[in-house]
Design brief:
By secondary structure, the protein is of the alpha/beta class. It has ten helices and five strands; from the N terminus they run E-H-E-H-E-H-E-H-E-H-H-H-H-H-H. Its main location: cytoplasm.
Length: 210
Amino acid sequence: MISVLFADDHEMVRIGVSAYLSAQSDIEVVAEASNGHDAIELALQYKPDVILMDLVMNEMDGIEATKRIINVWPQARIIIVTSFLDDDKVYPALEAGATSYMLKTSKAEEIANAIRATYEGQSILEPEVTGKIMNKMRKPSHQPLHEQLTVREQEVLLLMAEGKSNQEIADQLFIALKTVKVHVSNILGKLEVQDRTQAVIYAFKHDLVK
């Protein structure tokens, strides 16, 4: 049996996918998580063969959860299952250590097959993701790291440099707190730094703060 941990903040999604997977003769969903913190705890507790990880979740997003799981347990096989194909989601997720990248529009059967393939050591990527990776490889990599930031991420970084908390940033930009957390995670990944302090130091060092 291939043991699976499924992390997704939408209960109905977990119920539907878990029911299908559990009906397979070779797959067993051993645990479910509704946020990144629980995903980390359950991953290290159960050490499942494969982890299905949503990207946008409360408390901690899937990118940060993936990064922390891989840091402690490098052998973990993690499949991102998300609705997003944006560059600021795909690349940080793969760089964090995700093995495969699937869309929630995939059929349950396709997700089950991706679990089997990932368990066997293969990397399963949506065709659009493969195209993005190929295009990125063709582009010269001489641009400064901060030029990879989206306009919104630049705004968040400047507010971080002003010492504002995630909640204060959310209030000022009129966006959800969990959205701010995703932006912060993406900023850390793109600037190749470990925490907010290093991101702020980068911003001042490169004259991004006026």
